[in-house]
Design a protein that fits this description.
single chain; about 70 residues; mainly alpha; 2 helices
């Protein structure tokens, strides 16, 4: 599942929790799914942040080097 699909599913879960009247069992399942999706999204965001940081450091290294 892509990041975007996970975020969309999280939105669907929130909508179900806010607008529906899930049973306690359904509530537990939706909540557990939402927690797992949230963890996956945070992981993906942190990985992307790390990649961007590395690229920024590479760019800064190129800019700071004097031209010979």
């Amino acid at each position: 599942m892509t990041f975007e699909e996970q975020v969309k599913r999280l939105g669907e879960i929130v909508e179900q929790l806010e607008n529906g009247q899930p049973t306690l069992d359904e509530l537990n399942k939706l909540f557990a799914e939402g927690v797992e999706l949230t963890k996956n999204c945070y992981k993906a965001l942190n990985e992307t942040k790390g990649k961007v940081t590395v690229l920024q450091e590479e760019i800064n290294g190129l800019v700071e080097k004097p031209f010979n």
